[in-house]
Automatic annotation (TrEMBL):
One protein family per Pfam: ApbA_C
Ketopantoate reductase C-terminal domain ranges (all copies): 171-287
PANTHER family from the UniProt entry: 2-DEHYDROPANTOATE 2-REDUCTASE (PTHR43765:SF2), 2-DEHYDROPANTOATE 2-REDUCTASE-RELATED (PTHR43765)
Name of protein: 2-dehydropantoate 2-reductase
Single GO MF descriptor: 2-dehydropantoate 2-reductase activity
Annotated family: Belongs to the ketopantoate reductase family.
Function: Catalyzes the NADPH-dependent reduction of ketopantoate into pantoic acid.
InterPro entries listed in its UniProt record: 6-PGluconate_DH-like_C_sf, 6PGD_dom2, ApbA, Ketopantoate_reductase, KPA_reductase, KPR_N, NAD(P)-bd_dom_sf
Gene Ontology biological process terms, A to Z: pantothenate biosynthetic process
Amino acid sequence: MGSLFAGRLAERGNEVSLIEVSGVMIDAIEEKGLRMAGLFGEKAYSLPIAPADHYAEAFELLIVFTKGMYTTAAMEAAKHLLGPQTWVLTVQNGIGNVGAIEAFLARDRIVMGMTNWPSTLIEPGLITVPGEGEIKVWAANGQASARLEAISRALDEAGLNCKLDPGVEVSIWEKLAFNSALNSLAAVTGLTVGEMGDRQEARDIAFAIVDEVVAVAKARGLAVDANYVRQSLEHAFANHRQHQPSMLQDRLAGRRMEISTITGAVSRAGKTLNVATPVTTTFANLLTIFDNSGPVA
């Protein structure tokens, strides 16, 4: 996703630098550029790329794309790039990322949001964008500002269909419900999206998780639309049949799964708000066991 945003912003003439920790990714982009195929055509962008400690000057805008369990480490590595005028944008999956960022930057300079843009990594340095998406953002402190509008406008002018949405937290939780259901179930069962949709037992579990996440969101005062999330699941079951959700991909590859800001976050929020989440909590516990057991044999 970071490659998509970087490429589109660079296309519009913005000065973009990439912060990356993977040596393989750094070498590929330094050699061939950041390459993009799909919706926007075949493109290649020559952009600076390096670990955070290779940069010295403060950034105007820092966009965080790490998985949630790495947010704090990423911000720690980049904290010397946060100047008095630096703003930070997060459109990461899950919840809790704003709080992690706030440990390094005042909340009034944090923009939170969600995106459903599809972006697939084909190989290091090459992504494909199979279709369209959108971005919704709003200030973490709830206040409109000229800087917030400028950030949204830059993303929109880059062709990323960005709009300001004071109710973006609802969209974040609706995506959280979707991800909690599909990612958790796929990672535990090993099923693709279509295979889950074909099994009534899997469907029942997925919708039970959705109902629990929605209940927690409503206890937080958010008007999350359960029917919208269910319809999104049905669309995925029918149209993304071969897709392996990211949490399953991570488990199969022996990588850490994004539990703490998705399923685990829902379980913790439920306990805080006295909302029962037995199915979600069970899956969070199972995933934590898997995460601590190494790659699938």
